[in-house]
Batch of 2 targets.
Target 1
Amino acid sequence: MAGVGYVLAIGAGRAPAAHRVDTAEFEIQFWSVEDGLLDNSVTSIEQTGDGFLWVGTPRGLVRFDGWSFVSVNPRADHATNLAVTAQCVDAKGHLWFGTPKHGVFRLASETEWQSEATPMGLRDEPISCLGAGEQGEVWIGTDQGLVRWQEGRFERLLADPALADPAVLGLHVTRSNGVWVSTRSGLRQVVDGMLRPARFGPEVSGQSSPFLGIFEDRHGLLWAFGDSYLLNLSAGRRFNYFRGGGATTLQVWTICEGRPGELWIGTTGQGLFHFDGGRFRAVDLWESRDHSEVRALFSDREGNLWVGTQRGGLLRLRERTVRWFSGPGGPATCLAEDPTGTIWAGFQHGGLLAGRGGVLDPATVPAPLAAQNLITTLAFNRDRTLWLGTLGNGLHRMLDGRVMRFTLAQGLGDDSILASCTVGGGRTWVSTGDGCLHRFVGLARVSFGREEGLTGDPITAIRPAATAGVWVGTSKGEVLRFEPPNRFRRVSDPAMASGKPITALLEDSAGRLWVGTAGAGLYCQTGEAWRHWTLTNGLPDNAVIGLEESVRGDLWLATARGVSRLPRTWIGGSSSSHERLPLLIEFPAATAPSGALGWPRSLRSRDGRIWLATESGVVNFAPSALQPLRPAPRVRVEAVLADGRAQPRLAAASSAAALRLPSGLRDLELQFTAPSLTFPERTRFRHQLEGFDPDWQDSPGNRRARYGRLPAGEYRFRVTASDAEGSWTGAETELALVVPPPWWLSPWIVVLEVILPIALAATAARKLSHRRLRRQLARVQAQQAMERERSRIARDMHDELGSKLTRINFLCERARNELAEVSPAANKLDSIASTSRDLLHSLDEIVWAVDPRNDSLEHLVAYLGQYTAEYLQNTALPYDLKMPGTVPERALSAEVRHNLFLAFEEALGNALKHSKATHLAIRMTTADGCFVIHISDNGCGFVLPPPLAEPPHPPAAGWRRGGTGLRGMRARLGTIGGRCEIQSQPGRGTAITLTLPLATIEASPAPAPAL
């Protein structure tokens, strides 16, 4: 069975065909020469630390990123690629590969290959195998024996004198640095720098010596293998004859470990075997005999198994995480799990099916149930009572093989059953087509309708609440909650879902209510607030068919297009805008449910799997298997083409050096990629050319960025890839680029063109500058004289007038104390004292406004706070005062400070005298280049009179003539470049906002020092 793959040849712009084989446990995909592979015979497979897969063939080496193959030729002097016989990755992460005629090569950097040679003639010896040790050494097997490379030096190991043929057929380096070598004379082990025979006793006697090999798994167990057996050397246990079919010859060619304790065995003649510690299983890769010759196996870091065959191409085995069951016909409508863990599914035309492990068979039920079609809902009680609803044939209750039917004749409001659920194991809720809801406890029934708060619209969704009661959703998009003993309360706006049916409900572990609709998107209620997501802000589709929470607390969303996982950034963030959720499972066409028929369409079973009922049948998956396999891959810039020509030097991602492009550049193309071996089709790219692109640009469907003519200058190309879920969490790759100007814009030409006009202009500018400086100096001297005079006036007013007013107030207070408590003279003295105190207060304000030392925003804020405290301290009006923690350094003129203070004073006075408020809030902030004062009260409020307008006829309630103070406040703020905003309504208090733009006012010089 062949399918469509997702592999792209670099530069081709389309994905070559990749063929799939569907099996019960694995998805198998393979690639051949038609897809970019150099040869259908694969000799070796390795993976480097950057995530790329390297595939060796008799016609050369290719690098694979999961999307496309790139041919690699380390020798520029050879027009044809070098055949590859073996590969390994050393302890430093360098890739090595051997050839039959040209020695070994090492990948020293991302693009630099180094040929390793030795005076011993290693270049002329066919390389049969390679192995890497933990200490950095590389072992090289040739037809002349075993060679060790370490720190740039080669050493040939001495063989046992009894070894007639020194040719090395295979080798394995264990994690403990033991080296095992296969020869035509049997197994050898490196001991004290020599090849010594390895003896295993009679277990391997009679076997073909060239077929013997050694493999060590992650637990440190040694396995020996021959032509028809596997031997656990650590346990002394032998497994014989795991061959299958009628082949007369069988050779174990290679062994690879998948999950711990799981071995994959590649053979010649019988293909691939799986060994789980106790038994062998043949894996049917393909009907073609080409896949029976397995020569290379490799398990990558993402958990995929790669199989290299002789003449059969490259294959990838990926564990199947999603299982489909198409059913007997018609859409699946509902799901339920009984107390034993059996999954039950109802179908629109196929009756009732049940089973475990993803396999559903017709359920064994009594005849009245077996004949039922148009099943709409299923529910189980703890005692295994099955409640089955149908469309038009009523409700059925089955227990111990007995069936009881409820219809209009038995008191239901309608014979069409739409939804059901069980609460607490003993109570069953059932909705009928007439909009009523019925609760069964055993056979006792209680019905609920409009009198109990229901809307009368059909109920399409019912889900238990975390506490008492249930959540219900209607066909008109409303959500209600049942609150004991017998009332329903609406929790959503009637127009919230635009009249679309509710098709999914979920109260998660954090207490949030999630609501899915049949066309209006997804809603989430946190407290009293609702958030909404649709296609425009991230959903894959507006039709939501299921919502489930996994054991780990993740939320899984099923829409008409497929299944996505809701990241925690969605759950806790704003719903204004999101990246589009990627589909971890994509449904076939025509899978979306038609309307709201069927409940529930999603289910989380006891084993943690999530089940969905779709138009194409039942699908189930393990959420843990669909988690991102790895972080976002690192992007590599593959090539830079200037006017169609590849540039000879490409700066590495970690290099700060810039790549210099030709001048007069007309076309620039940058090609990039990132390794993703499991889901390459989900990897998305975005790029930005700083200095040209204003923002990130998406690269949908390709791995390149193209630009036309670029102006001369310096640029930085940035590119990044998303992870499997579409999140941009990966590191950026950067490449500095320089586009030089054409020769006529070269610096020396520019200098000659501009130096003479500059020299002529400089002389004139110098004279004008001196004249301007003299005028400016005169202005500064006059300003300083003015500041000194202001300081003198402020000092004289404070010292002379202030002291005299203080003396008058003191004498009045003293004389008042000497008189009787009630007398005309005492009252006059009280008035004189009060007037003198007011004059002192006004004098302080004038001195503060005149004194140049206060010409700053910091002094203004401090004074306003002090004034507020003194003004309100002896009043009965409670207040809150919030001042900014930090105030920017900004000089203000006396006029600006004085006008702002008077407007603030007017606002406080109005609130105290007229508002009848019980609370006053004053907040000062400095943000966005403005100083803002916000005064608000909870008083009586008033109707704000329009400026210069006559009163309405008849006068509106709360309107009063006046507003002179308000107009004065606006005028004062307008004089200094600010604005005054007033908001008030009768009975809702008053809010006044004074805004002073600091960036637009003309600041005075810094405050003068104290004199």
Target 2
Amino acid sequence: MTGESHALLLSRKKILKNLRRAQLPAELEKTYQLLEALVETVDCLLVLTELDGRIVLFNRACEELTGYSRQEALGRNIMELLAPPAWKPVVEGRFADPFAPELRLPQENPWRTRSGEERLIEWRCAPVWSPVEQRHFMLGAGLDITDRRAAEEQRRQADQEKSLILDSLSEMLAYQDLGHRIVWANRAAADSLGLPVEEMLGRTCHELWRQRPDPCPNCPLRKVAATGEPHQGEMVNAAGRIWEIRGYPVRDGQGQLVGVLQITQDVTALRKAEFDVRKKEREFFTLVGNIPAMVFRGYIDGAIDFYDNRIEEMLGYRKEDFDARRLTWMDIIKPDDLEGVKEVFLQALKTDRSYVREYRVRHARGRPVWIEERSRIFLTPEGKVDFVEGVFYEITEKKRLEEIFQDQFHFLQTLMDTIPSPIFFKDAAGRYLGGNAAFARYLGRDQGEIVGKTVFDLYPPESAELHHRMDQALFERPGVKVYESQVQDAEGRVREVEFRKATFTHRDGSLGGLVGVILDLTDQKRREAALRRAHADMKQLMGALPSILISLSGDGFIIQWNHSAERVFGLTSREVWGQPLSDIGLNWDEERVAQGLAAAWETGRPLRLDDVAYRRRDGKDGFLGLTLSPIHDDEGKPAGLLLLGADITERRILQSQLAQAQKLESIGQLAAGIAHEINTPIQYVGDNTRFLRDAFGELTQTLEKLSSFLAGLPPETALERVREGWAEILQEADVEYFLQEIPPALAQSLEGVERVARIVRAMKDFSHPGAREKKATDLNRALENTITVARNEWKYAADVVTHFEADLPLVQCLPGEMNQVFLNLLVNAAHAIGDVVDRDAGEKGVITVTTRTDGRFVEVRVADSGPGIPEEIRGKIFDPFFTTKEVGKGTGQGLAIAYRVITEQHGGSITFDSEAGRGATFILRLPVGENAGAEDRHED
């Protein structure tokens, strides 16, 4: 229809008036009536406005859509009456430039109806010239596409709901064709292979999961394809996991087998992995687009007139064949649809004589084409049918998509009904949209009864309130929510279940509702409780054992690791469980333990390993005693190994210390005997020397008196000769020399005797049997005795310098043990200096021993001028058996004994300060005893 014809029709009154004035022929009047009827019967919205927006034509389709009558619309501005406020700028823009070429292109904007509803319209606009009015009008032809957009949104939501459903399932899901090729699979199936879903498509299941070129023997999926019946079975993968595989036949709408649905569940750990079904892309073509319409007039005998050539474009027929009546519309309607077509026509005659009907016609090439007819019946003045006018739309694609949608819905429903877990859907108001067969069985209702209900209609009040509260929390914070609850099933049994719920949205992002899955955890909970009880009993038993207990499986993996093992090795059972013993990095004699394990496994008899060296948690060396015992199964075959052990380091240290103490006791006894034997002769040697000293003194006095007497005689006397002779005798005997030298010699002898006596006393005090109880001890005196006894160790390498506090308090201690500590420190200092000085050149170092009071403690420092302690061994100085001396020169027990005596037996501390190349200082701090100050510090 041309723009000029529309303009004439829209100015009907003026046109009729002008026609009557011109006395135009009746044919023109008939043509005008025909055009007016077409405008009224066409399903398109036709509106004609002035260039300022005032409405001058408003057809029947506009009235039906908006609810406004023609009388209400004419003369009113289209922007004020029909344009929503938000769209007014857009509409005004079109009127601002009505001749813009883009206005002829399809454009969408809503119309506001009388009821306030907004309907989305696809417009084609163009300015038209009215030769009668001699001015331009704006013509708009529109199609209501609101329902089409709604259908597209429903399809999108259906696709989204399907994806959400499959994503909420924990099973692995795959759909195969009859050749076992994967058509689609969910994310859980892809994750089990470590592949993206896209790489799985087109490949067979046995190729992906079993790495086999051919199908697996006894494959349940092959049985499904062969029999068309469900089958299931179990498979063990390369990692030893047991999978339950269930196969279900998938049929099309005609019942033909088209594929196999594979549902795989890991039953090893009794839990279901959440699976994600790959969103299967399905193109839904637009059901309604720019469908070309055929404008027609039909007659009661089936004859039809078309006013354009769209018939050839749509159905392949020539318009001339219908014009010449060589072909009628009834000739191309499918015979099966004729009765329905007639029924709709007869019903329209009883109402407003307008109707819409759908039926099939035959294309010129023989294929069926679906047609939607929108028509209106016109009657003669006598009330008989005169003709029918309307439009035809081809809706074949719409019908095809509807069939596809129904097939997909049927497939989705079949898929959900084969899943054993209950699945349900709700809208944003909490009303059920539906559920699968398992959910209906769970509620004890038919699937149709669920739709539209709420939890308050289906659950007891307390349970309903809980589920409602969880739903509301999920709607407030969309996402995924998982919670557990107790429910009563259709048979009245209380079941432990887990609810998994996830929200979904509409295309515009608004909240659509939620999809939920119910997992029955009752049996799993019971097994877990029994397992926890057994585990707790075993854990309590294992924790009560003071010994190390490690259990190995037949293939060498750790399956038990008790608290004692955690304490000794510093590794928790969680860290080592399921790992080979050789891989967890224990710092022990691995080769010896491995040989022992192999021997115990081979012989089947227990094996004892003593003194297994290992590194303790504090970094020190230690020893273990291990018993390796094979574990046998019911048939007596080795099924594993049990390691029982204990840390025997302290026992070995005590044994070494006992041997050292016995050795020191023997040395002390020997020193005591020597002291006793030396003391007796030294006593009489001293007495005799003192006698000689005294006698010599008296003799000296006599000689002095005699000399004085002789000197007093007169020179002229007869005795002069005697004096001269006596002087000569004294000069010859060199008595003066003896008088000068003998006293110093005697003094030196006495000093030597006193020194021997002092050494003997020191040896006696040092070797005195150790007391079992502490006594007040003078540490200055103990240090003096120790320095004296150890003189032979240090005199060639160093000089000893002492700085003793004069009023040092007495200390409650075990004297024998303290003497041993002082001796070890002095000997170590002398050896350290001896390693760096040149003794042949007379070089010596210095050992400085200092005592002082520091509050409630007495501090003893032993410093040497040796090489110092290297940084890398400082952490091991007090370790048992650690020594830097050559084999045979040191036992590695000296400082370990000192540490134990000072810290454990006396509650003190022993530390050291060292600088490489500048010596080391050992610092002992001992608490002063409560009664120490009352003792005589100088008692013999």
